[in-house]
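Comment thread on ticket #2218

A.B. wrote:
> Attaching the input chain for the structure job we discussed in standup.
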Amino acid sequence: MKKICFILNSSGSLSVVYPIIKILENYKIIFYVLYSDQLKKNRILSQIKTKKIYLKSRISQKKCKSYLKRINPKLVYCGNNGNNEFELNFLKSAKLNKFKTFTLMDSWTYPLRRFQIRDKNNFEYIFPDLIGVPDISVRNKINKISDTKTFVVGYPQFNFNVFKYYQKKRQEINKLTNFLYVSTPYEKPKKKYIYDGSEIFFDQKKIVNTLLNVLNTYFEKKQKKTFITFRLHPLEKKNFRSYLIKIAKKYKNLIFYFDKKIHNYESYLNKNAVFGISSMMLLEASKCGLPSISLQLDREFTKKGKKNFFKNIKGVKVCSNINELKKELNKLKAGNNVKIIKHKIMKKNFLNKNLNIAKQILKEI
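C.D. wrote:
> Ran it. Output below, let me know if you need it in another format.
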């Protein structure tokens, strides 16, 4: 029986391939998932019914080779989170030992840096044999410097979550009563990482405080209270959750709630709007018809050479200051987030796209 080996060590790498794995589980294929520290507590991983092997993230290419030789898969999927030693070492080992490799990109951001691996003081590109890219512009960037095979897949994780969202029974919300905030972990530049200067290192606590102050004042004037649900990133540190609990008492018109849902679509249900900073969930939520607001309330976003990835994205509103945030809040209307889409259209626009991706992968084995 044919085997596929999945190498995963980031929530992005897992989220994009998860719906494809669920489709492939219906075929006569043996799966192995080799994962590491970043996914140790990831609940989506537990939804995959296959053999999973945990390995330490600092793994040599020699050990990577040993595991691959032992499993002997027809195809090796390597995540492409970028600056991820675990995924990159397995990719390099698989390429050197003539295993066919593939990947699916979870975002259009930093398309080339995802495939860079450091070699002492320099870096080299290492591309899988097959790459599923989100759009034509990313494909063109890769094809300029590599002859690797690429095909446009869009966003498999979006297809999954949007399809599931519209399948679920949702309530018509007649009041502005529940907002979702999607966190993006605060990061500091790391010495061994590869950067191109366009990265933005923002202060999430500062941005969240601004959001909460604006929301609290808004509902104080209306003499009402509202829920704000926090969906914390899998890599979010515990001290951020503790910080939110500590400051909750300050906001008399806000009721804090911490999301415990596994899948994104579950978090979108019965929400008036979604706030965040740079999470891809903002774009995904907009595909569900929800108002999505990117809080770029930090000077870092306006510095020369920094990339604003939501600037020209339809469906996601970028707020660069408090006045813009207040303006967007005033635009929100209750009861406008429940749309009915026919099942046939949903299948065509979402489910069938992932089926086609799975078929493309099956051709490679």
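A.B. wrote:
> Thanks. Noting for the ticket: The chain has a mean pLDDT of 87.
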